[in-house]
Amino acid sequence: xxxxxxxxxxxxxxxxPAEAADALSTTHVTDGLTVERSGAEFLFEExxxxxxxxxxxxxxxxxxxxxxxxxxxxxxxxxMKSGVGHVDDDPVKIGRPLLxxxxxxxxxxxxxxxxxxxxxxxxxxxxxxxxGDWAPGPLEFRPRHVPEGPELAAWWLMVRSVAxxxxxxxxxxxxxxxxxxxxxxxxxxxxxIPHWPVGQHEQPLASTARFxxxxxxxxxxxxxxxxVDDVAEASGLSVRxxxxxxxxxxxxxxxxxxxxxRLLLAREQLQSGDDRSVAxxxxxxxxxxxxxxxxxxxKEFGELPRQTWQTARx
Length: 314
Known about the structure:
The protein has helices at residues 17-27, 121-132, 149-168, 175-192, 210-220, 228-235, 239-250, 254-270, 278-284, 290-301, 305-311, and strands at 4-6, 8-14, 29-37, 44-50, 54-70, 74-87, 90-91, 98-99, 105-120, 139-141, 172-174, 195-197. By secondary structure, the protein is of the alpha+beta class.
């Protein structure tokens, strides 16, 4: 019988700041954490679901949370959906993932909604070693790096898939499946934020493993009319080797991965409310055929591109 792993679930909804502080201190490693009212109506909600390897958290608070937080044994990545947030006095950008350092960091979140993903640190280090062709060990990440463009799209592609499994999947899963999903999440983090072994300088592209070169080339040229052959040639892999590597790291083919990146890039721009037309946004995201783009977009997001475009202008 295969080894199984349990995904726990915890939810709290309270109007008492003290109970909110207790909940946050259960979820996080904290120091001097305080939760205060910011107005007459205080409300705190938190939902946590996942395993010791991989966990999703969602928090909202009509109030102010401040103190110090550190990730513990996991990599902790948060993204703010609304409100005002600061980490070590630096403002947090809405809708962009932020990786916490391992040492304590001062936080201040006010009237906010925030999601977070925890990924087992050892798994991240192992996947990074495979991708970078170095020995497993502690990593350094580019401080306060904010992914944009294809990097950001790759991050959301990973989060969407992980959320589908963790939030809607069973409470009991095989340990092998959970480890594989954790590796997938680790790959998404490593794609989004530059990293290198502790004690070394940032690694030049030429020194990284071939899959990392393939992925970097694909993301750098995602909006151009590139082919699988182009990606394989840039990385020194055969087409078959490239296909196998993308299946191993992302669970899909490089062609599907590229299409998803372009769809997410287009969606972000359609939601931005800028002056470009739907056709211009589609072309800028790398879609040569508007009809195919519209069909793929509707299949993935449940609405036509023009509906997203119009909603952003209402």
